[in-house]
Amino acid sequence: MKKLDVIILMSWVVIPPVLLFVIHGNFFISSILYLVLPSIYFSARKPEIIIKSLIVSLVAMPLMIIFDYLAFLNKTWEVPTIFPLRFFQFIPIEDFFFTFCAVYVVIVASNYFFPGLNLKMISRPTVRRSLFIVSVLFVIFIILYTFKLDILIIHYYYAWLILFAFIIPSLILFIRFKSYRKPFFWITVYSICLMLPYEVTAGKLGFWTFPSGEYMGMVHVFGWGFPVEEFLAWMIFFPLSTLAFGKWVVGGENEGT
C-alpha cells in the first residue's frame, strides 16, 4: 500500500467517531463520513470497478427491504429517522442510504486492495439470473406482507439472518474461491477495527437501539451493549458476505479462482 492509502485507512477508523461526537451527528451524517467519502476515494483510485459496484449495490436493495422489514417487525432493531416518511411502515431512508453505500464501498475497496479477487468481469447472464431470483423473492415478500403477515414473525430472527445471509455465503466464498482466502483475514481484522468504534458511537448517539429480548447474548463495550449477532454480522461477516453476493450477482473470471 502507498502512504496515502495507509493514512486513509487510519483516518477512516479514528476521525469519524470523534467528529460525530463533536458535532453530535446523526445516522445519515455517519453514513456520509464512514461510507460516502471512502467510496469517492476508492472509486477515483479504481474507476474500472465502479459499474460493477453499482450493479451489486442496486441488486441488494430488494433484499435489504426484506431483511430490514423483518428486523423492524420482529423488533430486532429500531432506527430513528430525520426524514418525514418510512417505507413499508418501518424502514427509514437512512437504511437504504447506508446499505447501498456499505455494499458499494466493500466491493470497490476490496477490489482496490486485493486486485487478485477477479471481480472486474461482468457476466450479463449471471446478472439477469440474479435479478430474476431477487425479484421472485421480493414478490413472495410482498404477497406475505399483504396477506400473511403473521408468517413473518420469526423468533430469534437476528440469529437466523446472520446464519443464512452472512455466515453461510462467507463460508461458501472462502471454501470455493481460492483467491479470497488470503484477503479473508485482513478484511475481517480491519472490519472489526472500523466497525466496533462505529457501533459504540452509534449507540451513544442513539443512531439505533435493540429492543428485542431474543438475542444469543450481549456484548458490552465502553458502556454500550449490543447483540452478539450485531458483532458477528457487521464487524466480521458483512464484508465477506457482500463479496460473496457480488460474486453471485455479476460473476467472475473463472470458477475457483
- What is the strand content? under 5%
Q: N-to-C SSE series?
A: HHHEEHHHHEEH
Low-pLDDT segments, ≥5 res: none
C-alpha Rg (nearest Å): 18 Å
Q: What is the count of helical runs?
A: 8
Quickly give the structural class.
Answer: mainly alpha
Describe this structure in words.
This protein is 69% helix and 5% strand. The chain is mainly alpha-helical. It has one domain (3-250). It has a two-stranded antiparallel ribbon with strand order 1-2. It has a two-stranded antiparallel sheet with strand order 3-4. Strand 1 and strand 2 form a beta hairpin. Helix 3 packs parallel to helix 5 (124-147) and helix 4 (93-113) crosses helix 8 (228-250). The longest helix is centred in the C-terminal third of the chain and has 25 residues, at 181-205. The two termini are 23 Å apart.
Give a quick set of tags describing it:
single chain; two-stranded antiparallel sheet; 257 residues; two-stranded antiparallel ribbon; mainly alpha; 4 strands; globular
Summarize the structure.
By secondary structure, the chain is mainly alpha-helical. The chain has 8 helices and 4 strands, in the order H-H-H-E-E-H-H-H-H-E-E-H. The protein has one domain (3-250).
Task: Summarize the SSE layout with pairings.
Layout: H1 3-23, H2 27-45, H3 50-73, E1 86-87, E2 91-92, H4 93-113, H5 124-147, H6 157-176, H7 181-205, E3 218-221, E4 224-227, H8 228-250
Antiparallel strand pairs: 1-2, 3-4
Helix pairs in contact: 1-2, 1-7, 2-4, 3-4, 3-5, 3-8, 4-8, 6-8, 7-8
